[in-house]
Amino acid sequence: MSGGRHRRRIRLVLPVAAATLAAAVAGALLTASADAATAVPTPVRATPSTAQIDARLSTALAGDDTAGETSSKASLSASTGSATVDPKIIGGAATTITKAPWMAQLWYGDTRGTSTTADDIGFFCGGAVVAPTKILTAAHCVKGYNWKAHGAVITGTPQLLSENANGTLNLHGGTVSGVWRQWNHTSYNPVTIDNDIALLTLPNPIKAKPIPMTTAGDTASYKTNTVAKVYGWGRTSSTSQNISDVLKTADLPIRSDATCSGFYGSDFVKGHMVCAGIPASGSDTGTTSACNGDSGGPLVVGGRIVGVVSWGVKDCVKQGAYSVFSKVSTYAGATYPRVEDTDITGDNYADVWVRNSSSKTGYHLPSKGGSLGSRVSWGSYAKWNLVVQADLNRDGYQDLIQRRTSDGDVYWRHYVPSTDKWASTPLADNWKTRRAILAPGDVTGDTLPDVLSVDSAGVLWIYPGKGDGKIGARVKAATNWTQYDIVRGHGDFNGDGRADLIVRNKSTGAVYLYRGTGKAGTGAFAARLKVATWPTTTYNVFDTVGDVNGDGKADLLTRTPGGTLYLYKGTGKNTSAIFATRVSLGTGFKTYDLFG
Q: Is 196 a catalytic residue?
């Protein structure tokens, strides 16, 4: 890295709290067995040009702003009201991208549309790849900024972006991407730095290997003295603003809530935050800490992210201080649905796929949050008797699982961005007698979406997904499921970050929630919980497509025998009250015989 403006000017990110501080085709292309003539809408995602990316990176590299603290720029979010804190890894050691392939550099550069550089906004944050199109980071790096218009993400390199002597940018072998969507926790507080967690969605999948987040039930990772690893490119000294040219890591022991509160008082929010490290010595010597530039980066235990670098003390070495992180287990219920938020139109609202019973034409009905838009044709679906919406390769484009009527063969139909075409790959043979086929998401806890089915004998099987559209050998999860006439699932209904199932007893009409545990086999679901009584005279169709209203909670669609479609918005509660009062989405849905 050349000296350049970056080494002299950039001040990186960690606010002080409160007053103290492309997917390639996997498998065969469209086969003769599929409906080759079916017209399918092509997903559209605008990606920035190389020139636009370069301009953003150059502005960011020259920047001297701190994320979350640019209130002097009138159009941006308010300042924390505190002095700038420094996120850095002081006392750590250099590491390689092979050991941390999921690390991401988040660069934000906005020229504000003017010819002067005086009002430019440029800053840097860390992040971690948690899915092929998803970057986990801190909310103070995201809230108030337009990452789609001004952001860029670099992955695949341990070296920080730099500028060559001739002024050109050097990615050091890394891959750069624009940003398509952003989300930060809705309760993020820029003053207290509470609920400091966010996700960026990339327009296309990247090759960097993801790292999973921990789950809501994880307590072992937060036991006192558990050794965690923090990663980042932040400052390496309390006496210099220079940040590290290479990726660094350090071991930090987890501290108890009492210890953290003892030093930070009410600034430390128990349950929302976790602190780690040896008490700082007051100088670089004897201190190991996150610091400016590490914001948004991961704290890792056992191969899973348990914390996100959030805040600390000014210059990071104040005697007795600890690094503070957002506690990921607390935010699993809010964050996991955002990782698995694939929908047909790409607007963060789960859409409804249907087939007309007479014409056999398939359609999708785009969700508008509380209503459905005009239907869009997918052409003839006469050859199929089951369609399930999914994203088996986690590329951010919604797929379909389709069962052919003639022989029961099941295909995975997916969009291939590199060719701008749809392809169909065989998924299973002769599933004609399967009573149900569904794709609820990650059931086994490995972050990869799975396929489930109920066979003619009532056995529930899990087919572990491999993340590339393929599935592994089946694992028995339950028996005696002939009692259910409806088995559905897509997403997390009780807010713990795990995929769940909704079933109905065909005799009594009782509706049950099977809560996912994140385990494979017979322990995959907890004991059923009754949530409603809806016999066939009340509803004859259940449909689960994910988060229809965009609040991060899985929803349920039901249809009456007369054809009225209702939306039951998920509440995310871990009780029988998992749905809010129903909302009508319209009438006339009796004409549809397949729901995705």
A: yes
